[in-house]
Amino acid sequence: MSQTPTPQRLQDKGTADRPLRVGLIGLGSMGRHHARVIRGTEGMDLVAVADPGGDRFGVAGDLPVLSSAEELIEAGLDAAMVAVPTVYHEDVALALAEAGVHTMVEKPIAHDVAAGRRVAEAFESRGLVGAVGYVERCNPALRALRERLDRGDLGQVYQVITRRQGPFPARISDVGVVKDLATHDIDLTAWVAGAPYASISAQVAHRSGRQTEDLVVANGRLTNGVIVCHEVNWLTPFKERLTIVLGEKGAFVADTLTGDLTFHANGTVASSWDQVANFRGVSEGDVIRYAIAKREPLALEQEHFRDAVRGLEAKHVTMAEGVATLEVVEAVLASAAENRTIAL
Description:
- GO terms for molecular function: nucleotide binding; oxidoreductase activity.
- InterPro entries: Gfo/Idh/MocA-like_OxRdtase_N, Gfo/Idh/MocA_Oxidoreductases, GFO_IDH_MocA-like_dom, NAD(P)-bd_dom_sf.
- By secondary structure, the protein is of the alpha/beta class.
- The protein has two domains: 10-136 and 300-313, NAD(P)-binding Rossmann-like Domain (Rossmann fold), CATH 3.40.50.720; 140-258 and 260-293 and 325-343, Dihydrodipicolinate Reductase, domain 2 (2-Layer Sandwich).
- 31% of the residues lie in helices and 28% in strands.
- It has helices at residues 31-40, 69-73, 89-98, 113-125, 140-151, 177-193, 274-277, 297-310, 319-338; strands at 20-25, 44-50, 65-66, 79-82, 102-106, 130-133, 157-167, 197-205, 215-222, 227-233, 235-247, 250-255, 260-266, 284-289, 342-343.
- Residues 1-8 have low confidence and may be disordered.
């Protein structure tokens, strides 16, 4: 039996001197931003767009709006961005893999773990770059946080707490708050802390009349002993996006809405106030808000994908990582449904 030849990185095919021919499928709330960013990314040309529902945001420009992944592939693509609803991720991604197109799929990788594994295997078996769009990893606050943790600025890490709250977004129709929002926190927590999840316990609620959950609180432990807590909902009348990392030297607070990173150091000044001095714990020390370079996370995410396709660097979120995150997501939902802690 003959085998399908393994596609090579573009660098190996002698095309590194021309922009990547990129296709985009899904022109909704996220797709319109991807169209803008791809057009603005050096080394990428948006040559085809597709959405069976049309172009309600008017992002196609001079390009015809195609109706399927198959039509998109016929345009002759080097790479593609998939921004369709989650339920369609598997079918679209598999079609692109079969055609030998390097692809980034918006998070989560697929509607369930089994589908995610099929997608990841399809790209890996063909030697293609398969990426998942966890854009929070490109947020300047989280990148600065990860750099400082890697440097040992916090010492031993004890806990990661995330709070991702706000009103219901009209763009969501096919998944609940766990697969849409909590998936970000699960991915970034394992990435920031440098270890996968060992166990998870969760509770969800349905408070707004929708079929899917709109509130989740999840607690767990990573394999390196770090304790985690996630509070995520679509019920809060203000928007909050915080990641708090507590460790032996203090705490980092990353605000991914503003891109700011603040460090709260443990105090080292001796106190002459007996009631305070006798307390066996930490005290408030210096507070530093770092001045960090701020770039649009989506633009950096596309650059990482471009460089991976070129064979230059591998800073993208891999599909294997996307599957691992989806395994935790499904464990969160199973834990809430069965009222038990789930080992991973």
